[in-house]
């Protein structure tokens, strides 16, 4: 996807970020969407913040980074994360606008 036009890359990455069973693929897809500044599309993924992580908090952390870098409002999806006992999650939450 490195050389694909954004119009092709964004839908492909959105599908991977939302549905791929492999957490690392989802994590990297979110980061690629951040690089493409796909704010509207990433906003559609924010409900994933309410889900339990399959293995790690990597996807959640990537989505929180998207909020910080692209100014996305995730406030209605953060209540559960505020109770998580993980220093990286709490650090990321402290940086979200």
Automatic annotation (TrEMBL):
Supply the InterPro entries for this chain.
Answer: ARM-like
Q: Which domain of life is it from?
A: Bacteria
| The name this protein goes by in its record | HEAT repeat domain-containing protein
Which species?
Nannocystis pusilla
Lineage start: Bacteria, Pseudomonadati, Myxococcota, Polyangia, Nannocystales
């Amino acid at each position: 996807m490195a050389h694909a036009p954004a119009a092709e890359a964004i839908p492909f990455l959105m599908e991977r970020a939302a549905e791929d069973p492999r957490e690392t693929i989802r994590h990297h897809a979110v980061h690629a969407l951040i690089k493409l500044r796909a704010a509207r599309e990433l906003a559609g993924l924010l409900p994933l913040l309410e889900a339990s992580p399959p293995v790690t908090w990597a996807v959640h952390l990537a989505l929180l980074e998207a909020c910080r870098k692209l100014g996305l409002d995730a406030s209605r999806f953060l209540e559960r994360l505020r109770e998580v006992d993980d220093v990286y999650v709490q650090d990321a939450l402290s940086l979200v606008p």
